[in-house]
Amino acid sequence: FRSTRQLARWSEAGPSRRQRRGMAPYGAKARSWQVKDVADFISTTGLKQYAGAFEGNNIDGKRFMKLNSNQLPQMGIQQFDHLKKIWRKIKTIQEVCKKHEQEMGDPEAQLNLHAARIQSLARGKISRQRVEEIRRERRDRELEVIRDQELKEEALSLVQNEGLAADEAMEEAALKIQQRARGMSDRKRVREMRERGELPGQGRLV
After folding, report:
1. Does 121 map to a domain?
2. Is the pTM of this model over 0.70?
3. At what angle do helices 80-103 and 107-162 cross, to 10 degrees?
4. Is position 113 within any domain?
5. Membrane spanning segments where (predicted)?
6. Domain span including residue 28
7. Do the beta carbons of residue 169 and residue 159 sit within 8 Å?
8. How sure is the predictor about 198, in pLDDT bands with cuts at 50, 70 and 90?
């Protein structure tokens, strides 16, 4: 295994020197790391007191590549500054590894990338459906408010002009609104039939 000092030196030097020597950047093979390799990497972050937590949780390369920031507190990394620093280092290595695998045409990496894209598309579809549901619900609420206002105005007119009691006026107003709605629906149907040339006698000379 690589020593902690060697890992720290590579981490500080950055990938450019290694790339100039024709070597893969540090972290490119992170998915194949053993548990000890992961612990050694954590030691290079300057917070080596947490290396044991990674060993204790048996975090090897495959698990390391699936880590997210929400899991770190469960491993005992509670202090915000420490959590933020370690997660930033982990995220950097994850990105280096994924990029290298994609460049090398790694089948597993390509499969993971394809799966991630499918999940992203699925989330997008669900989001669009939810947006449409919200719009439809809002339209329904607005129509309900309009109908309620129309009913009140019609009932008030009946009370003022015809002297009806409030309850009677509300019932009469509801009937009138229903009749108007049916009339509008009938007129719309007639207009559509006329446009399609389906009215009896339409098109005949008188």
Report:
1. no
2. no
3. 120
4. no
5. none
6. 4-104
7. yes
8. low
